Amino acid sequence: MPAGVTPGDAAGVGVRVDRFLDRVRDRVRDRVRDRVRDRVRDxVRDRVRxxxxxxxxxxxAHAHVLRVLAAxxxxxxxxxxxxxxxxxxxxxxxxxxxxxATIALWNAPPxxxxxxxxxxPRAAGTPQRSRAPPGARGDTLVSRGDPARARTTRRTSxxxxxxxxxDMLVHQQEPYNAEPPLGALxxxxxxxxxxxxxxxxxxxxxxDPRTWRLVVDGLVQRSLELSLGDLRERFAEHTLPAxxxxxxxxxSGLIAERDxxxxxxxxxxxxxxxxxxxxxxxxxxxxxxxxxxxxxxCFEAPxxxxxxxxxxxxxxxxPVAKATSTEVLLAWGMNGEPLTPxxxxxxxxxxxxxxxxxxxxxxxRVTAAVEPSPGHFQATAYRLLPPxxxxxxxxxxxxxxxGPVALNCEVLFPAEGARVEVGPTTVTGYAYAGxxxxxxxxxxxxxxxxxxxxxxxxxxxxxxxxxxxRLSVDLDAGEVEVVARAWDSTGALQPERAADLWNPKGYVxxxxxxxxxxxx
Length: 520
Fold this sequence. Notes:
- Among the domains are: 7-119, no CATH class; 214-393, Sulfite Oxidase, Chain A, domain 2.
- The longest helix is centred in the N-terminal third of the chain and has 25 residues, at 15-39.
- The chain has helices spanning 7-12, 15-39, 42-54, 101-106, 148-156, 228-234, 251-255, 281-288, 320-323, 376-379, and strands at 57-62, 71-77, 86-88, 91-93, 141-142, 169-172, 177-179, 214-218, 224-226, 237-245, 271-280, 296-305, 312-319, 329-334, 337-338, 348-350, 365-369, 408-413, 419-420, 423-432, 439-445, 453-454, 456-457, 467-475, 478-488, 513-519.
- The N and C termini lie far apart (53 Å).
- 17% of the residues lie in helices and 28% in strands.
- It is of the alpha+beta class and 520 residues long.
- It is globular and about 70 Å long.
């Protein structure tokens, strides 16, 4: 590193560091690329977590191209505590351990803009101006009508070793299952990767994009074996904004009515929206010559779950009519960047309008078949069951397999439990209709449903995305209960009570959304 460049210089502009890294990049690229995949192992991740906790050495590395991990470790002796995980433009400031450079970069968060001064690191002891996300603490004081605070906090939150915000609500570490605080979704039509919810049924598989292949077989005229390069070269590329929602979104509301043992208490943050880039599944199936006898398309991935007995790889399916719709993608990109391992790299399916469980990550096989997938997560799990059914032995006779998402909405800001100032406040949230339906109206009440007002509703980013809504209200001192309900383009209204929707797996809680606030 050129003489005179200090952590303060990097925090200010990072210009000289960029020049230096440009000179180093070509020299170290091949060595890093060859070594990295041997280092992405659980024991190494554990050592990285320990290293990030110590942090006496500053490490700067490019993070905008994860496939080519250009890295250089700068051994700058710093005072203990003066280095901490932050982001500076296209640089990631991490920690020490020279031999862990590649894995630290592999888990590096996406870049933020240098033009955003709120995202620059501060010297030790400098007060942090951004506030915790609204509702992250029960006593958070929310400034009048200022949901932008939540967006600022989302950009500046430190990252965990899963490339996620440090304030994610983690339901399970392994496999990793987590959702963001609701305030982090407020006012953001697209969800950044660090904030996007994560639902996994088994550990993240270690796949090498260079040797990975997608097999297309079953009821087709010719089987295919495709690399990422084949997909890019043989098929037209498409980008589509789409919302994904976990079938267990808002399960906590059902658990409040009656316990659901063994199921994570997801709140309303298991819903996120991104732009997805890849090729249409319909085009790939056409190239294989899809048979008229095929009724379902099965997706297989190598992540092994121990939920079924015996454990098995993840496998689900969708009907041919959905699989051949133009919105269903085989995606390698998310929000303009390559997929991260946690979100399905090197390739995943994106099935807009359907529950997230059908958008299979780490895809390795597509099979055309007469029957749905026999895998546990299609044949047994993800069924809407009556209260007395046994989820472990569920069949078609017990309840239907879940597919299209049900009409739903959530209050994002101010979030449940927030303390709000007396006077005008802007209440915001999302609404999502699923499949090819649209939200046409959202009603909001600030007196527990006694009276209602219609909220302003965004058009959304396309036919497959959520729509954000907002309403300016005047709040008096005391306890206030905000309630929201949505209507869709078929004229359907959300059901009122979670108690009427309780089921033994805790799926599809699309009852009215509630947020209890303390005003004053």
